[in-house]
Specification:
Length: about 270
């Protein structure tokens, strides 16, 4: 580079510096900051930091809960057996079992409650006062039925027995026999119904067992929140506190997963 070129570059640089120093420097108005303003600004900053900290803690807590639920869902998904498509069908079968169990309980109660009225109905057709009018059998033989006593040789030979009494006794005896047959028919009908319900329940039990459905043991066991749901707390049951005193609805386990929780009543 020649001397002239160097001189020209230096001359341009001097001119640029001269122009730069000629520009007046801006004068900024510095705001006045007093103690009150400073404290107010620090207070606002502190509140903002507190809000941000609280929001961060809430967000961390929610994230932790979400992770816990996700971990639990993954564990259940890993433990759950592969869906074989029998879930809805088994649920329907279990519902049928519940309905049959309820019907069996109701019929059993009716069978027990109707026994006494039936016996009283049969006894009401008898007339012990008229039976006393029959002649006694000789030789202390075992007492026979009223019908046999009425028409036995000894009764027919007894001329002192009024014919009207004999006719009335015959009518009462026929009425008693019809009442006893009706009562026996009612008893046998209810007994057959109970037997049919029990056979149906046993068949459903076999189907559920073949489908890997295991009933949850409840009555007499200690309440287990992982297998049972409390529908009522019973006081003065005579059982230890926390013990299951009655099963309202049976629960099931399929494989290692709770298919349905058992609903129970627990002693206080």
């Amino acid at each position: 580079m020649s001397t002239e070129e160097i001189e020209r570059i230096l001359s341009d640089f001097r001119a640029w510096l001269g122009d730069l120093t000629a520009i007046p420097a801006p004068v900024a108005d510095s705001p006045k900051v007093d103690l009150y303003t400073l404290i107010a600004q620090f207070t606002a900053l502190r509140q903002e930091v507190n809000l941000q900290t609280k929001a961060s803690r809430t967000s961390l807590k929610q994230n932790a809960e979400a992770l816990t639920e996700l971990r639990s869902a993954l564990e259940q998904l890993q433990e759950q057996p592969e869906d074989d498509g029998l879930g809805p069908l088994l649920k329907a079968v279990v519902d049928v079992y519940d309905n049959l169990t309820l019907a069996l309980k109701q019929v059993t109660k009716q069978r027990a409650a109707i026994e006494r009225p039936l016996a009283e109905l049969v006894d009401g057709t008898k007339n012990p006062e008229l039976e006393k009018l029959l002649p006694p059998l000789p030789d202390a033989k075992p007492a026979r039925g009223i019908w046999a006593r009425l028409f036995s040789a000894q009764a027919r030979a007894n001329i002192g027995l009024d014919k009207g009494v004999v006719k009335m006794m015959k009518v009462l005896n026929e009425r008693t026999e019809r009442t006893e047959k009706a009562a026996s028919l009612v008893r046998s009908s209810l007994d057959s119904l109970i037997t049919g319900y029990r056979m149906s329940l046993a068949r459903i039990d076999r189907v559920l067992e073949q489908s890997d459905m295991e009933p949850i043991a409840a009555v007499g066991e200690t309440f287990d929140p992982e297998l049972m749901e409390v529908v009522e707390v019973v006081g003065e049951s005579g059982s230890p506190a926390g013990q299951v005193v009655e099963e309202v609805r049976r629960g099931y386990i399929r494989g290692e997963v709770v298919f349905r929780f058992a609903q129970v009543k627990v002693a206080r």
